[in-house]
Design goal:
Largest sheet: 3 strands, mixed
Low-confidence stretches: none
Number of helices: 15
Order of helices and strands: HHHHHHHHHEEEHHHHHH
Keywords: Membrane, Transmembrane, Transmembrane helix
Number of domains: 3
Radius of gyration: 27 Å
Helix content: 40-55%
Strand content: under 5%
Strand order of the largest sheet: 1-3-2
Number of strands: 3
Shape: elongated
Structural class: mainly alpha
Distance between the termini: 76 Å
Length: 354
Amino acid sequence: MQAPVADSIDSETRYPPGANTKCDIIRHFWELPIRPEELASGEINFEPYFHNYTLECLSALQAGRKINVSTHRHITNIAQLLQVCCRQCIKEDLSSQLPRPLPANEEKNEDEILKSSINLASRLFAMVHFGDLPHEHSNQTRVPWTDGLLKDSVIKHFSKPPVLGDRVKLQKVFNARNLHQIAGIEIYWTSNLADHLRMMEDDKKVAIFHYDSFLEIHNKKDGLLFPKGFVEETRHTLALLLPSGPETRKWFRKQQASQNYKLDPKVIECGRLTADERQIENFMFWRDRLVILKQAFDEATPGNVSQWWWDRRNWVQWYTFWVAAIVLFLTIFFGLLQCIEGAIQAYKALVPTQ
């Protein structure tokens, strides 16, 4: 049975937020004025984001009382502090709001309660994972943030200079659909921006951050939380891997149908990059991961008939393979026919008809 929706910012986080609450959260998080009718019309699609928002809240609540964010207002209050206060100041502010005295079984866990509350609000606000939540076990990338402003830690993490060479060509064929169909690389759709383009599981899987609606907000507020130019470049990586067009839409619909969570449909509306825009030197924040991903793509060899069919990176090799395959098939087919014909003739010779 579907959980009830309590449409108030003071409603509990175990209930999915309604339209009014979603608008309040968006206003408090990113100062974006929005009305419920705009959400209903689909002009601004935040359904995938709030699907993830609800999952994160429910996951945190599974830890019992080791977290102090029971309502949506608690989360938005922390989010507003994240923009202007250091981590220690936020922690002290939350500590002053805890009921005193704390129950004996919670007093020793006060630090964990405060830390987990801040981590939950920060990952919902920035879509970057900070620290661990109680009872969470994952190999996702965590951005270190133990002191100072949230913005400073985010900028420091994403501003590391590239170290890999730039002798890489990003052709049109280099896209998510071909990564999946040709190279057999599984696409892992992530809600953690720190995992974007990260190769996993012995280079058999790559993470792609698909919340373009979230990126679009921050693109208008360049430098608010992320390094200048970071969001625009991230959207360029999406345009590179998910170029707008009918083939991408058809493949993406299959991806949507196969997932247990909602993918942001706007991720395939980032456009297409020109030949000049596809030059690797245009990428600074994501260059190393693009180089690693392109190397994995170039080194991948087809492992089944389907991958051989889709692998048209080298047209001469593709034609040669399929001509040879067709010739081999016809040779076997006609050889089999001759065997059958010979067997029939031998049978008739041994058993003449009356």
